[in-house]
Amino acid sequence: MNTRWQVKYFRALAALLVATGEALAQETRPVARRLVVSIPDRKLALVEDGRVVKIYPVAVGKATTPSPAGSFTVAERVTHPAWYRPGKVVPPGRSNPLGPRWIGLSLRGYGIHGTNSPRSIGRRASHGCIRMRNADVEELFALVAIGDRVELFAERTAEVAGIFGGPAAGQVAVSAGPMAAGMLAGQ
Question: Which position among 60, 129, 137, 152 bears the catalytic label?
């Protein structure tokens, strides 16, 4: 009788293992992932399947070299990038202005990267790229893939306001402070 129970147990266990293997072998649905950058807010949001996963502070292009607005894709991912400019190459390391990671966009020459100037985060300071704290860009780098959408917004649209909070461009924020509350109550 004990043997009969063991046979049933092992058959059930085998069926469970086969079912688990089949479930794991099935293709998983790819995550709809995109990066949304609000240039006026100087923030980047990682959005997966329509849900904001994380928001990062960033530096954006200064007035003389603004960040481009538009829809792009992640075209390349480089760990420990070298920085090139005419007549100069800065190898990976502490003095490299790209930091430890480069997420290149489909618009050649533009990307999301780390920085050797962390005080620039939250400012209009770059030559058009999106700068992140080094720890933040390393985290983001591990989460994005080539082909992911990257949207850079020069204005606060309703979608941007929904992601980052606050009013969209052209909307006025209404304060519910004591004076406004008194006015609404007819005082």
Answer: 129
